TrEMBL record:
The system is composed of three essential subunits: KdpA, KdpB and KdpC. It comes from the Bacteria. GO terms for molecular function: ATP binding; P-type potassium transmembrane transporter activity. The lineage of its organism: Bacteria, Pseudomonadati, Bacteroidota, Sphingobacteriia, Sphingobacteriales. InterPro entries: KdpC. Belongs to the KdpC family. This is Potassium-transporting ATPase KdpC subunit.
């Protein structure tokens, strides 16, 4: 027993030092070189502060909707639904999301509806949509905000982020940045109408 106990205690102590002290310190040190010292990418608009890299809820009709979140967009509790794709409760939730989306966007057929608009991401905090996920919402937003659909489409196109280094990941659109630009476009339109 003594021959096994001492090596086990040494391994436990070594693992504790590496996993609980050295690794967190290394991550913290690397974060100090990143923008905003690892505290997230902050955006200030109209006196409010938003996190650019954390998904947020946009439920009003005049905004691009984010990907659904299984954790109600709570960054302190990141996580998915943990339900299988064949789970009855999960399938009912997805079906309900499809119906809700199609009621708000009657011009979008079920076949055109991107999967990310009705399923939550693994973290529940995905801040981005695919380009198609943003484009299928253009007609609704243009109608609600009384904007030309072409202008809203141009706004989506101007906010497309290319894959990292041109090869990693798909093209995407940050929903927060798109909605802030949409507010700006609407404000400019209202100002022009007044003048």
């Amino acid at each position: 027993m003594k021959t096994n106990l001492l090596p086990a205690l040494k391994l436990t102590f070594f693992s504790f030092v590496v996993c609980a002290i050295l690794y967190p310190f290394a991550v913290w040190a690397i974060a100090q070189w990143s923008p905003n010292q690892g505290k997230g990418l902050l955006i200030e608009s109209n006196g409010r502060v938003f996190y650019k890299n954390i998904g947020q809820s946009f439920t009003e009709e005049g905004y691009f909707q984010s990907r659904p979140s299984a954790v109600d967009y709570n960054a302190a509790g990141s996580g998915g639904s943990n339900l299988a794709g064949s789970n009855r409760e999960y399938l009912q939730t997805v079906q309900q999301r499809i119906q809700t989306f199609q009621q708000a966007n009657p011009t979008v057929s079920r076949a055109e509806l991107p999967v990310e608009l009705v399923t939550a991401s693994g973290s529940g905090l995905d801040p981005d949509l695919t380009v198609q996920g943003a484009r299928v919402q253009v007609a609704r937003i243009a109608k609600v905000r009384a904007l030309e659909a072409e202008k809203v489409q141009e706004l989506v196109t101007s906010h497309i982020e290319k894959p990292l280094l041109g090869i990693f990941g798909p093209e995407k659109v940050n929903v927060l940045m798109l909605n802030l630009a949409l507010d700006k476009l609407s404000a400019e339109r209202s100002k022009a109408d007044v003048n």
